[in-house]
Amino acid sequence: MPTKKEIVDKIVSELRKNIESLIQYETEMEEMFSNSIPFDNKSLPNKIDLAQSIEKLIIFLPPEKTETIMSGSLIEINIKGKKQFMFITPCGGGRNIVIDGITIFILSRRAPLCLSLIGRKAGETISVNDKQITIKTVE
Which of 1, 23, 72, 133 gives a 20 to 30 Å CA spacing to 106? Predict the structure, then answer.
């Protein structure tokens, strides 16, 4: 299982790649439209959001181990007999990352599923959207 630091580093890396893609897109669009109408740069807010997420994650120190689910928890859940791993972050959620062949869903602290999980412990079962979710482990 990857460490929490490896997970945070991977999220930061993915966010940086997203910013680089936006910059490349902007450059290509500016070149395409340089001789015609001005290019409206709508991706600037996205870059700012991504940059702010990176700043928050760089200073984010997830706890070593927790009994209850909180920001920084790495959890294993079971939905319909399928094992899934989730990592709760203050930002940068809504994506999957793969480390050492293990897929981990990154869940933002404000996500509805996360709000249902916060404060729960290993062994508890909750119901979300008519699905039974069993919390296997909390780290």
Answer: 23
- The Cα diameter of the chain in Å comes to 62
Structural domain spans, the chain: 4-138
Architecture of domain 4-138: Roll (3.10)
pTM for the whole thing?
0.74
CA–CA distance, 39 with 28 (Å, rounded to integer): 10
For helices 4-33 and 44-59, give the axis angle rounded to 10 degrees.
160
Measure the CA–CA gap between 87 and 113, rounded to whole angstroms: 12
Say whether 135 sits in a helix, a strand or coil: strand
Q: What are the distances in angstroms from CA 123 to CA 30, 40, 102, 133?
A: 54, 51, 22, 10
Alpha helices, H only, the chain: 4-33, 44-59, 112-117
